[in-house]
Amino acid sequence: MTTGPFVELDHTADLALQVRGSDLNELFCHAAQGMFYLMHCPASHAGAGETVPVGVAALDIETLLVDWLSELLFHSELEGCCLCGFVVNVARAEEWELEGTAVAMGGAPPERVIKAVTFSDLSVNGSAEKGYVTTLTFDV
Fold this sequence. Notes:
The chain is an alpha+beta fold.
């Protein structure tokens, strides 16, 4: 099924998602949107509540992506809510760093549980000139 900047892929046991972005910030936002789409969360901001700050750092871009999504899953599970309205700033100094926010949505918790984001065949490919693409696999 195609939904904007991400595509749900057929997978034998888990969930998989191909994600695109014109830059790394957009790729990370689209990855979060796609993950919560797979969790059957509404895409709108209706009932939006508190802003959730997220900061992560990693030695490589793939670990940064997994850590970002894992932090979002942790907060969603802890608060029993869906998240939306993602904003990120990915930068590289001595290591990769991400400062971001998400908005907690009031109402029902996610309908589908994702246990973890995996490193299964994970690689972030592309360039600043041509955009980025990755395929994510989630344990359910």
